[in-house]
TrEMBL record:
The lineage of its organism: Bacteria, Pseudomonadati, Pseudomonadota, Gammaproteobacteria, Oceanospirillales. It holds the Pfam family Dus. Coiled coil: none annotated. FMN binds at Q77, K148, H177, N211, G212, E213, G235, R236. It catalyses: 5,6-dihydrouridine(16) in tRNA + NAD(+) = uridine(16) in tRNA + NADH + H(+); 5,6-dihydrouridine(16) in tRNA + NADP(+) = uridine(16) in tRNA + NADPH + H(+). Belongs to the dus family. It comes from the Bacteria. Its EC number is 1.3.1.-. This is tRNA-dihydrouridine(16) synthase. Residues 13-306 form the DUS-like FMN-binding domain. GO terms for molecular function: flavin adenine dinucleotide binding; FMN binding; tRNA binding; tRNA-dihydrouridine16 synthase activity.
C-alpha cells in the first residue's frame, strides 16, 4: 500500500458525493493512499439538533477517530441556512470527533435549493456570512470551519462577495467547485475563476482548494496552473480511476481494469457483509458507470450486469470476470 500523502506539493481532498461516497467507498478509495482529507456527504440541517446516531450513520468513522481504516481524516459536511441550528449541529459534529466541519454552499439539487439550501445561498452572501459566523462561534477555535461553494448560482457576479462573506465570517478554507449552479456538471470547469477567489483569500492567509473536472494527472497539473492554487479536491475522477490520488501524489501507475474490478468486487462483498444486499447491485452498477470513463471494459461489464437484480447474481457475474478473459466480467 502506498500511503505517502501529496504534501508538500499540495493536499488532495476526496470530495463529498451524496449517494455515492459513503464510508465503504471512502475506505476503498483512500486505502491506496494519496488523500489528505475526506469530506462526508452532506447532513441536512433544518430546525433541530440532530441525534448522534444521525451523525454516526453518515460518518461511521466517528467511531474510529474520524479516520478511514487507512488513516485518512474525515470531516463532516452540513447543509442548511439557519445559523442557530447549523451552529448547534456543527458543535455536535465536532464533539463527536469530526476534525472541524465543512458547510455546503454548492448543492444544485432543486429540492434542496427550493428550501434555501446549497447553491441558492450564493445569491445571499449575507446568509453565508451569518451561517459561517454562527458555526465559527459554536465550534472550538482549534477546529477548522471550512466551506465549499460554486462560482455562483446563475452567474459569477457575486463570486467575490461570497468569498468575502466566508472570509469575514472566519472560514479556515474554501473549496471552489469551478462552475455555477446553472453550469451543473457540464464541462468545462472554469479553473481560472478560482484564481480570483484565491487572490482575495490570500490576503487573509486562507487556503483555497480547486475542484472540478480533474480526471488525470494532466488535468491536475492544468487545474493547478490555471487556478494558481496547490490543493485540489477530486470527486468523480477518483471513482473513474480509483487510484487517481496515488497516481498524482506518488506517481503510482494507473490501476489496470483487473485491479479496478477487484475493488468493485470488494465493494460488493462489503455491502453483503454489512447486510446491504438489496442495495448492492445498484451500487455496483453505479460505480461501473463512473469507471467507464477510464476503462472501456467497465462498459462491457455494465452491459452484462445491467439486468442483474440480486446480490448473489451480481457476485457470481463479477467473479467470472476475474479469470481470463479479463476484458469482460461475464
Ligand atoms: C453524485 C454527486 C453527489 C454530490 N454530493 C455532494 C455533497 O454531498 N456535498 C458537496 O459539497 N458536493 C457534492 N457533490 C459535488 C462534488 O463534491 C464535486 O464538487 C463535483 O462533483 C465536481 O468535482 P469533480 O469534477 O471532481 O467530480 C456531488 C457531486 C456528485 C456528482
Amino acid at each position: 500500500m502506498t500511503t505517502r500523502s501529496s504534501e508538500p506539493g499540495g493536499r488532495l481532498l476526496l470530495a463529498p458525493m451524496e449517494g455515492v461516497m459513503d464510508a465503504t467507498m471512502r475506505d476503498l478509495i483512500t486505502r491506496n493512499g494519496g488523500f489528505d482529507l475526506c469530506v462526508t456527504e452532506f447532513l441536512r440541517v433544518v430546525d433541530e439538533l440532530l441525534p448522534p446516531r444521525v451523525f454516526h450513520r453518515l460518518c461511521p468513522e466517528l467511531h474510529a477517530g474520524a479516520r478511514t481504516p487507512a488513516g485518512t481524516p474525515v470531516r463532516l459536511q452540513l447543509l442548511g441556512n439557519n445559523p442557530e441550528t447549523m451552529a448547534v449541529n456543527a458543535a455536535r459534529a465536532v464533539e463527536l470527533g469530526s476534525p472541524g466541519v465543512d458547510i455546503n454552499f454548492g448543492c444544485p439539487a432543486r429540492t434542496v435549493n427550493k428550501s434555501r439550501g446549497g447553491a441558492i445561498l450564493l445569491t445571499e452572501p449575507e446568509t453565508l456570512y451569518r451561517v459561517v459566523s454562527a458555526v465559527r462561534a459554536a465550534v472550538p477555535a482549534a477546529q477548522p470551519v471550512t466551506a465549499k461553494m460554486r462560482l455562483g448560482f446563475e452567474d459569477r457576479a457575486r463570486l467575490l462577495d461570497n468569498t468575502w462573506a466566508l472570509l469575514d465570517a472566519g472560514a479556515a478554507e474554501i473549496v471552489v467547485h469551478a462552475r455555477t449552479k446553472v453550469d451543473g456538471y457540464r464541462p468545462p470547469a472554469y479553473w481560472d475563476e478560482i484564481a480570483r477567489v484565491a487572490e482575495v483569500a490570500r490576503k487573509r492567509g486562507v487556503p483555497v482548494v480547486a475542484n472540478g473536472e480533474v480526471w488525470s494527472r494532466a488535468d491536475y497539473d492544468r487545474c493547478r496552473a490555471a487556478s494558481g492554487v496547490t490543493d485540489v479536491m477530486l470527486g468523480r475522477g477518483a471513482l473513474a480511476l480509483p487510484n487517481l490520488a496515488a497516481v498524482i501524489a506518488c506517481g503510482q501507475p494507473p490501476w489496470t481494469w483487473e485491479q479496478a474490478l477487484a475493488a468493485v468486487m470488494q465493494l460488493g462483498a462489503t455491502d453483503i457483509a454489512a447486510g446491504r444486499e438489496r442495495y448492492m447491485p445498484s451500487r455496483i452498477k453505479q460505480w461501473l458507470k463512473y469507471l467507464e470513463r477510464a476503462y472501456p471494459e467497465a462498459r462491457i461489464c455494465f452491459e452484462q450486469v445491467k439486468r442483474v437484480r440480486t446480490a448473489a447474481e451480481m457476485q457470481a457475474a463479477l467473479r467470472k470476470g476475474v479469470s481470463p478473459p479479463m476484458a469482460a466480467c461475464l
